[in-house]
Amino acid sequence: MLPQKKCITLGLLFGLLALFLGFQFKTPTSVIGESNPSILGRIPSVIDGWSGKDLCEEGMKNVFVVEDFTYFKPLVRTYTNLGGQQIVLIALEDLKGYQTSIHDPRFCYESRGWDILAVEDKTIALYGRTVAVKKLIYVNHQGTEKKMDLFAYKVGSKIVTSDFALRLAHIANRIRALFARKTDNLIYVSVSSSLKNQQAELVEKEETRLMQEILNSLFVQTKKGESYYPPLVKTVIVPFTGS
Q1: How would you class 231 by CB atoms within 10 Å of its CB: exposed for 0-12, middle for 13-18, buried for 19 or more?
Q2: Closest CA to 91 of 210, 200, 229
Q3: For residue 216, what are the CA distances in angstroms to 20, 126, 169, 238?
Q4: Taking Cα atoms as reference points, which of 175, 178, 153 lies closest to residue 166?
Q5: Which tens digit of pLDDT belongs to each residue from 153-191?
Q6: Could you give the dihedral angle defined by the CA atoms of residues 101, 96, 68 and 56, in that order, rounded to the nearest 10 degrees?
Q7: In degrees, to the nearest 5, what angle opens at C-alpha 25 toward C-alphas 157 and 41?
Q8: Contact 17/39 with Cβ under 8 angstroms?
Q9: Which of 8, 155, 224, 241 has its CA 20 to 30 A from that of 63?
Q10: pLDDT digits (tens, 9 = 90+) for 185-224
Q11: 36 pLDDT above the threshold of 80
Q12: Is the pLDDT of residue 22 over 80?
């Protein structure tokens, strides 16, 4: 090989190596900072007759099996209504946007002794649009405890439910981080309640109401009109103007 071609080849190899290392180690601009704060704080602690109480950080580490929350924002909140019914909100925000700690909850449930009985899509109405969330019904191995979850992922201005869509978001955010671009917010959100001594239809109705308010609170009005975060006043509704 001619010396000039060798130089070109070596240059390309070093360029690819630098690109790979940058991809692996570059910190994205969306990690905690003034311009890109976590948005989980927008979720109200009181929602239409439901009052929430947050779990401490040590307790949340057991829920998420995460030792270090440096690049995550967790939230575990138990909402209780006047009748004593409880619904647990579990949310985890990936501040990098591509960490695999956010994944389909069924993997965790099955490894922790729960059997999935039913999985189905459920459409819920947000301000100015409808989105699909997943409904899970699962029971422990002993058959003594049965629960219902509604869950979804917020990826930028979209709500998705498939693991495939989540992985695509991971890839897209890695590429954005590589070029020092702002990554999309990536948040897992679920509401869960026991079905013990409760009618499934009533539990689903209340979970749906909470999920609607929680997902609405995670959107914010932008200059481009990409998404909409309504004020927490039910009488004021502005149409969603995003795609």
Answers
A1: exposed
A2: 210
A3: 38, 6, 20, 12
A4: 153
A5: 998 888 999 888 888 887 888 888 788 777 777 899 999
A6: -90
A7: 35
A8: no
A9: 155
A10: 789 999 999 998 888 999 999 999 999 999 999 886 444 4
A11: no
A12: no
Partners of residue 52 on adjacent β-strands: 79
Q: What is the structure's pLDDT at 3?
A: 54
> Which residue, chain included where needed, has tokens 């869950």?
151
Alpha-carbon span 95 to 184, nearest angstrom: 9
Residue 73 DSSP code: E
**In angstroms, rounded to a whole number, what is the distance separating the alpha carbons of residues 70 and 175?**
21
Residue 71 neighbours by CB distance under 10 Å = 17
Q: Is 129 strand, coil or helix?
A: strand
